[in-house]
User: Fold Retinol dehydrogenase 3 from Osmerus mordax.
Amino acid sequence: MFLYVLFLVPLWFIYRWYKETKRVANKSQKYVLITGCDTGFGNLLARHLDKLGFCVTAACYTEKGEDELKKACSERLKTLHLDVTSQDSINKAVTFLTTVVGEKGLWAVVNNAGVSVPTAPCDWLTVEDYRGMLEVNLNGVIAVTLSVLPLIKKARGRVVNVASVCGRVSPFGGPYCVSKYGVESFNDSLRMNMAPFGVKVLCIEPGFFKTSVTDVSILKKNIKTLWDRLPQDVKDDYGSDYLHKVDLKFNDTFTKMLDGDLMKVVNCMEHAVSALHPRTRYSPGWDAKFFWLPMSYMPTFISDKFFLRDAVKPKISVL
Ligand SMILES: NC(=O)c1ccc[n+]([C@@H]2O[C@H](COP(=O)([O-])OP(=O)(O)OC[C@H]3O[C@@H](n4cnc5c(N)ncnc54)[C@H](OP(=O)(O)O)[C@@H]3O)[C@@H](O)[C@H]2O)c1
Assistant:
């Protein structure tokens, strides 16, 4: 029996590997919309899919982002301005897309745009801080998806949602993890609702990579700004050296966690867009595969103990 299993497991992996190498045909007839293409994963994905022959529409937040992409890519690639928090901006993008894709419909939308600040302990933040980030990371994903869904259904295409390992565990405070848990939930309900229409919904859950959202100087500046506006009693609870300890944590631990190989994520996104048999979920990054995901399956008392052991604690901590 043991030998039987030993033989079947590698055979299954070989079958899966073979199945996953197959790609869709007619890439030059397939239209893909990517949000947040100014920098990071979105920018690299736009260039990569353009090289592979897809008809990419790269939605950028800034004019600079559009100009740079146009210079670097083929004439097939189109750019447009898109602020995912503005329905007016989304409507304009859909009008443009409708004329571009015609009867073929939209093959894929990659919901990639996102922000990572403000991030701080929950009791430092206001509900407005939460609203601002949820507007981009969660409502932006929902608004863009619902607006392009008729075009996607026409093509029997795909929705690719960029969540995070922070949609599985919440190792720090603030709206980021809340937004990514929301993306996971939207992704899962949409996947089931769209299955009867032949539309696939795929989720990317990257670990920690070196991009603007993990830029330590931006994160440190953000936490300092939030600290400065705190009432004195909260500052007293946390202690005057709290910020310094957080800075050390960023320098000693966080920067070392970041993976510089962004293609690990981009290759998963490309697979989700172009594979004949895409995976339902992708976990790019060794940290995602071997730390964050296993941690998400642990009993809460174990994961809490682990995260709290390493966390910077307030001065009056009872732990
Ligand atoms: N890096 C990581 O470790 C990591 C891990 C897990 C998940 N993710 C997710 O991956 C996605 C891409 O992030 P990234 O790491 O590639 O960082 P990034 O380089 O900062 O990319 C995010 C992009 O979203 C754009 N954006 C911000 N607000 C927007 C808005 N309101 N409307 C449209 N676009 C907007 C940004 O434009 P500007 O640059 O002009 O602001 C930027 O181009 C995000 O959803 C992020 O949460 C990242």
Remarks:
- Residues 27-208+261-310 form a domain with the Rossmann fold fold (CATH 3.40.50.720).
- The two ends are 49 Å apart (CA to CA).
